Amino acid sequence: MTQDLLPISRIPRTGLPAHAVVVGDPARAAAVAALLDGAEEVSYHREYRVFSGSWKGLPVTVASHGVGGPGAILLFQELADAGVRTFLRFGTAGAMKPGIGDGDLVIAEAAVRDDGVTQQLLPPEYPAVSSPEAVFALQRAAREADAPHHRGIVWTRAAFQPGLLPLFSYDGAGLAAIEMELSALLVTASLRGLVAGGVLVIDGANADELVDAETTGGYDPHREVVAAGVERGAIVSLEALRLLAEAEEFTA
User: Where does the record place the Nucleoside phosphorylase domain (predicted)?
Assistant: First the structure.
């Protein structure tokens, strides 16, 4: 019956596992779900593709939220309505400073709220911060997976391509990476008292001084080094969820 489904994503109102990995691409959701035991597709409506299964005994939800904060926040809100309490965003991003290589992971400590949606919900002074336990779980999982990784603040920006307006510069601010959805998740989680964090695979360099289009051929996220990073990141995300659930049981 339609009343048993939430209106935007068409996911069930109840019954989803409380721990979730959220990704942009529906195909990536399927790839992460393929790592689970007993994976089943729960729903697929618009960009919102949702699976459930288990990772080392932990029931897990995997869901895609599409590109950009405005659409993504709708999924985050409905997953929370359906009972998800722990969110890890697993996505891709561009490096913003030297020393962060293609295929490396960036674990987000916080995000700049330039997402195009949360500014219409809350004053700009309200922060977008990861749950500390999510940061530590992701860092531990990355270390155990021997995955090259970094911690830092990321820039969530609504516009993917440059436009006519000058791009506000964060030069000197030490931002690690730029992506499009994380701050929407972190704000949603803070407002609802949920656990949330993010781990991002670097698929290119975005800071002007790092880009050498003549050498690299320009932005290309489909390279082997990025694919290898995505494979590592999927494992890190799922294992971090397990570590978070384990810690919850210990402190309950």
Answer: 19-241
pLDDT in tens, 100-144: 999 999 999 999 999 999 999 999 999 999 999 999 999 999 999
Tens of pLDDT, residues 84-111: 999 999 999 999 988 999 999 999 999 9
d(CA 180, CA 126): 18
Distance CA(178)–CA(169), nearest Å, equals: 12
SS3 content of the chain, % helix, strand, coil (to 5): 35, 30, 35
HSE-up of residue 244 (Cα within 13 Å, Cβ side): 30
In this structure, which amino acid lies at residue 118?
Answer: T
The token pair that represents 194 in the structure block: 């949920």
User: Cα(200)–Cα(184) distance, rounded to whole angstroms?
Assistant: 15
Structure tokens at 12: 């069930």
The rounded distance, in Å, linking the Cα atoms of 136 and 51 is 26
Q: Model pTM? A: 0.93
- Go through 92-126 and write b for each residue having 16 or more CB atoms within 10 A of its CB, e for each that does not: bbbbbbeebebbbbbbbbbbbbbbbbbbeeeeeee
Whether residue 65 contacts residue 182, with contact meaning beta carbons closer than 8 Å, is answered with no
CA distance 29 to 64: 6
3-state DSSP call for residue 4? helix
Average pLDDT (223-246) is 97
